[in-house]
Amino acid sequence: MNTVLHKANTRGDANHGWLHSKHTFSFANYHDPERMNFGVLRVLNDDTVSANRGFGTHPHKDMEIISIPLEGDLKHMDNMGNSTIIKSGDIQVMSAGTGIMHSEYNHNPDRPVKFLQIWVIPNKRDVAPRYDQITLDVADRHNKLQQVVSPNADDAGVWVHQNAWFHMTNLDEGKEVVYKVKDPVNNGVYAFVIKGAATINGEALKQRDGLGIWNVDTLDIKGDSDTELLLMEVPMTLSA
Predict the structure, then answer these.
(1) Considering the entire predicted model, what is its pTM?
(2) 34 labeled part of a ligand binding site
(3) Is residue 76 a known part of a binding site?
(4) FRET pair for 14, CA 20 to 30 Å: which of 21, 117, 153, 206?
(5) Cα(5)–Cα(8) distance, rounded to whole angstroms?
(6) Do residues 84 and 133 lie in contact, with contact meaning Cβ atoms separated by under 8 Å?
(7) Is 6 known to sit in a ligand binding site?
């Protein structure tokens, strides 16, 4: 088993006033050659956007972009004609492919919106741009794992152009779950503690800590408090 631990207070910090972003991996003005990615997981940004503010229209290309709202409502618009609101319990995915233009704004006039912005390097370049979002029943992750991302359009959650699976769980204190790695030969798992504290394969994690694990078949996860956790299984080798 190999591991890499990223404590919450070691992340890059970018405070633009209207946007406060914590970067697990190198992004924009934050650069650390030791923290460029975890396999094909390229970006994990923990964003807080002030009321009535947001990201103006900007481009993306050849990237799978997943947004997971944590608090508040986020408005999305793009050049494919999508104009939607995503909120806690929703999962959004964009396959940027040959190119997409979009904007994201805090839809709330009186409070910040908090969300995770995640970029996964695809296994296919120049695909047709695609947008999707779904609303999940959060009760289905209470003391068990709920799949929210997969490589298969017919499977649970949204799908991406990559051999990747994301799961979320809300564990009561003392509860345990076991995650079985889908592709233990090629993949690793990056665990991110959204709230609370957990122990994963003997490693104690606090809120907003991240732990990458590879060369392992299973993850033994215990809630050390009431805990919200995101697991991202991704290939460890770039293939696009």
Answers:
(1) 0.96
(2) no
(3) no
(4) 206
(5) 10
(6) yes
(7) no
